Amino acid sequence: xxxxxxxxxGDTLFKLVLGLVVPRPxxxxxxxxxxxxxxIAPFSFFNAVNDEPPVLMxxxxxxxxxxxxxxxxxxxxxxxxxxxxxxxxxxxxxxxTGEEFPPEVDEFERAGLTPEPSKLVKAPxxxxxxxxxxxxxxxxxxxxxxxxxxGEALLINVEEGILDGEYRxxxxxxxxxGRLGGKYYLRVVPEGLLKV
Length: 196
Ligand SMILES: Cc1cc2nc3c(=O)[nH]c(=O)nc-3n(C[C@H](O)[C@H](O)[C@H](O)COP(=O)(O)O)c2cc1C
Prior knowledge:
Blueprint: H1 10-20, E1 24-25, E2 27-32, E3 38-43, E4 46-51, E5 54-60, H2 70-78, E6 80-85, H3 91-97, H4 107-111, E7 115-116, E8 125-126, E9 131-143, E10 146-158, E11 177-179, E12 185-187
Antiparallel strand pairs: 1-11, 2-3, 2-6, 4-5, 5-10, 6-9, 7-8, 9-10, 11-12
Bound molecules: flavin mononucleotide (FMN).
């Protein structure tokens, strides 16, 4: 089948892009508002785009009413955020943080997660996350209706035991979750790995 984009409706394009460009990692972004309220939200339009220094990207739509999501507002107001990675043990909590809550709601409390002070940015890390990147806003661009946010990582926090002596990741211990289309997700587990 061929889909000419200019003749394809938005719902179909959404299903095709989200269902075919898989698996996508999930950037679980913690921020703090100007008023000091903590926020967390997951984004699967997420990846790394540079390693030295590390630069990560997320791409965020506006809400249906045209207002920016809390994550975008907080990142633009403070210039800082933390990208935490989602492992299998935190999957259900991540889903809770994907629901739309008003800005005054602290999503750490809602999801039963613990904010831990970051070392270099004001936004807190998620204590339960095995990996987190403390980021400073590098660039904000609009890509059509999306906010493309690039963050330069200043500090990478990795839980003890995940890396071996040569900083290789043990995927038996780092059971990270990826997003597929629709309601599907997957775990990165040793049995699923293809090795070269
Ligand atoms: C696994 C997952 C991935 C998501 N990926 C994105 C995404 O890439 N971009 C986006 O705008 N929203 C995405 N969402 C929806 C946001 O997480 C959701 O709109 C959230 O409520 C935004 O929260 P905020 O207003 O606190 O920033 C995703 C939701 C889930 C559960």
